[in-house]
Structure formats: C-alpha cells, structure tokens
Design brief:
The protein is α/β, with parallel strands linked by helices. Helices cover 32% and strands 21% of the residues. The protein has a nine-stranded mixed beta sheet with strand order 1-9-8-7-6-5-4-2-3. The longest helix has 14 residues, at 154-167. The structure holds D-xylitol-5-phosphate (DX5) and zinc ion. D-xylitol-5-phosphate (DX5) binds at residues 9, 11-12, 34, 36, 67, 140, 142-147, 174-177, 194-198.
C-alpha cells in the first residue's frame, strides 16, 4: 500500500450533486475527505459544516480530515469528533492554547493536526511537533479553492519534511496542488495532499486519483 494519501477537498465539489460526488470519490479510492470549516472571521469565507459531514458519513466509509479554519477552535472539538472527524486540524494563529487543544483532540481518539498559514514560520509550531500526528502547510491563503500555489512556502515544507522523520507526523500540503507540483512536493517529504480544483469536475475521478498518487510516488 502506498504511503501517499490523497485528500479531495469537499469545498471544491459540486454541492448540487454532493451525494454523487462523494460516492464517485469513494469509488476512486481517495484516502480522506478534506473538510474545510470556515467561520467568516479567521478565513474570509463561510464553508463546510454539519450537513456536509453528515452527507459524507452517509455515503462513504472514507475517513474525514477536518481542517478547522475558525477562531478559538477548542470549543468545537467534541462536536466535530461526534460528526465523525478522524483527523482534526487547528491553526495556532487562531488558538491561544494550541497545546491544550491538541491534547483535547487526542483525548477524543482523533489524530491531532496543526496547520500553518503561508506567512507562519515552522518555529511557531516547533514545540508542538511531539504532540501532533499531522502537520498541514497552507500553500495558499485560507479561504477559497482554485488559488495559485505559493512557491515561497517550499522552504518550510522542506524543513518540515526533515522534521517529520524525527517526530513521526504525516506532512500535508493544502492549496494549489496539481500534476505540475505534486512530485516536487513528495520529494521534499510531503505524504498527504489536499487536492480541490485539480480533481473535482474531472470526468474520471478514479483515473485522476490514481495518476496523482502515482506521480507522487514515482
Ligand atoms: C483553502 C482550502 C483548500 C482548498 C484546496 O482555504 O483549505 O482545501 O479548498 O483547493 P485547491 O486544491 O483548489 O487549492
Ligand atoms: Zn483545507
């Protein structure tokens, strides 16, 4: 089994045919559904919540990776775990007590994830790495699918790629991932790829997921 994981970003699905999108992506053997929860404050958009997660649970057995782009996420951990989140990722920029919140996530049995915005340094989360199972680097500014990958994030991705072997977390990138950069990112140590606009809307999801995974591991 490949160590490369593809996380389709449900934000970029056709929400008019959500059940169908979920079923097709499940048949395509995606690894996780990535659910972006946005509060219109930390991220300049309102997106994905209860009903979408229930719809995923109803139509798929694939685990859910919930990316909380909300301020003060601690109060919502139990809520999202109850909805079926398998990975819960928070932002240190949005949480004054990130270490406490990561511990609370682990206590629910979910994998604890930490995400950093493009402008946030590795130094900010270094002390948290021993208590994380998942690190997500935002490679676009949070809010919307379909943005261009920000190349200046490559330097810290490389640094985190090295640290992932020391601390044993999965390294994930989120934003602007496509055929043109997935190989380069994998070579830096990225194993988990959130993919939105380069996947949804295509004719054959199984082929697309298979190709992306193959390009990353070749
Ligand atoms: C951006 C989100 C991403 C985004 C990915 O705020 O966190 O998950 O939807 O979409 P693409 O792959 O189109 O950048
Ligand atoms: Zn995301």
């Amino acid at each position: 089994m490949s160590g490369i994981k593809i996380h389709p970003s449900i934000l970029c699905a056709d929400h008019g045919s959500l059940a169908m999108e979920i079923k097709q992506m499940t048949d395509a053997s995606a690894d996780y559904f990535h659910v972006d929860v946005m509060d219109g404050d930390f991220a300049p958009n309102f997106a994905c919540g209860t009903e979408i997660m229930k719809c995923i649970k109803k139509h798929s057995h694939i685990p859910m990776d919930v990316h909380l782009m909300v301020n003060s996420p601690a109060r919502h951990i139990g809520f999202f775990r109850d909805l079926g989140a398998d990975i819960i990722t928070i932002h240190p920029e949005a949480d004054k007590q990130a270490a406490r919140t990561l511990a609370a996530i682990r206590e629910t049995g979910a994998i604890a994830g930490i995400a950093i915005n493009p402008g946030t340094s590795v130094e900010t989360i270094k002390e948290l790495l021993p208590i994380c199972g998942h690190v997500l680097v935002m490679t676009v500014n949070p809010g919307f699918g379909g943005q261009k990958f920000l190349d200046f994030t490559l330097r810290k991705i490389k640094e985190l790629g090295t640290l992932s072997r020391e601390y044993d977390f999965s390294l994930c990138v989120d934003g602007g991932v496509s055929h043109s950069n997935i190989k380069k990112l994998a070579l830096l140590g990225v194993t988990n790829f959130v993919v939105g606009s380069a996947l949804f809307g295509l004719h054959d999801y199984a082929k697309a997921v298979h190709e992306l995974r193959g390009e990353a591991q070749d």
